[in-house]
Design goal:
The protein is an alpha+beta fold. It folds into two domains: 2-194, no CATH class; 197-269, 2-Layer Sandwich (Alpha-Beta Plaits). The chain has helices at 2-25, 34-45, 51-95, 106-126, 134-145, 149-168, 170-195, 207-218, 245-258; strands at 197-203, 223-228, 235-243, 263-269. A four-stranded antiparallel sheet has the order 2-3-1-4. Strand 2 (223-228) and strand 3 form a beta hairpin. It is elongated. One of its GO terms (cellular component) is plasma membrane.
């Protein structure tokens, strides 16, 4: 079931990416970095070569790098994603050809294209895959130099934007530069949203029931420690637990049903490492 969910989410990300690319970026000659941008530059000089085919050829080279550095599992996901993305874009070009951009305003095409593409890329990255190409280079920077994915993509895509400026003109080159900056911000923000957890403290005389609910129903571990009321001086038991938003809603509903006077404190946690959550990176 977990693998099926991962597969479906990767495909969802690919479809979202393709929509942003085909209808907004490619149609407007906005080569916002990556193998996609490089393929657009090559297609500009050799229009007989479809962009999807160019992407496939370029991805083969960097896939070898992924196999050496990240192993078979990541490479398998990446190969599938890169080939599927190329195929989806090729189908869009074949079945839904465009004579020009969806809207005439360059800024609107850039914003909608980058935001849609960035959301799709973030979904794919979060499933421990990539779309190949310069994404693999960004993954190298992320794993071995602990650079955030969005910032790593900005570094690798900058060179592509220079070529895009030469191919499509200085103005579109500047638009593409804005695009890769926006793309990095969107990806980092979406991934941060996926990883965001809630740090929860609960004080209740029904702490044993609440603790058992977290362990048995939500399948998370807790920490219980002794405390003392600053005003009353009474001894209290404090439950500490890290949950996602969906799990917290379940916990809050349960606590309300058994102890309406329970004290609950919730704060956002940017990152959680360890068993049951993200694993530590090893350089």
């Amino acid at each position: 079931m977990k693998n099926i969910k991962k597969f479906l989410l990767i495909n969802l990300g690919l479809i979202i990416m393709s929509v942003g690319l085909h209808f907004f970026l490619i149609a407007s000659d906005l080569a916002a970095g990556g193998i996609i941008g490089l393929a657009m530059v090559i297609n500009h000089f050799f229009p007989i070569l479809p962009i999807g085919i160019i992407m496939t050829a370029l991805n083969i080279l960097l896939t070898i790098v992924a196999l050496i550095l990240f192993g078979k599992k990541f490479t398998a996901h990446t190969v599938y994603s890169s080939l599927a993305l190329s195929g989806i874009i090729f189908l869009f070009e074949l079945l839904l050809p465009l004579d020009g951009p969806v809207v005439e305003d360059t800024l609107l095409n850039l914003i909608f294209g980058i935001v849609i593409q960035g959301i799709g890329m973030a979904i794919i990255f979060y499933q421990d895959a990539s779309t190949g190409g310069t994404d693999i280079i960004a993954k190298v920077l992320n794993k071995y130099f602990h650079t955030e994915i969005g910032r790593a993509l900005l570094i690798t895509d900058f060179v592509v934007v220079i070529f895009a400026g030469l191919a499509f003109g200085f103005t579109l080159g500047l638009w593409a530069l804005v695009g890769i900056i926006l793309n990095g911000l969107v990806i980092d923000r979406v991934i941060a949203g996926f990883e965001e957890k809630l740090h929860i403290l609960v004080i209740s005389h029904r702490y044993e029931d609440i603790n058992r609910f977290v362990l048995d129903k939500i399948d998370r571990t807790t920490t219980i420690y002794d405390a003392r009321g600053g005003y009353s001086g009474e001894k209290k038991n404090v439950i500490q637990v890290i949950l996602n938003k969906k799990e917290y809603i379940r916990l809050k509903q349960y606590i309300r049903s058994i102890d309406k006077d329970a004290f609950i404190s919730v704060s956002f946690t940017h990152e959680v490492l360890g068993e049951g959550f993200n694993q530590y990176l090893h350089s």
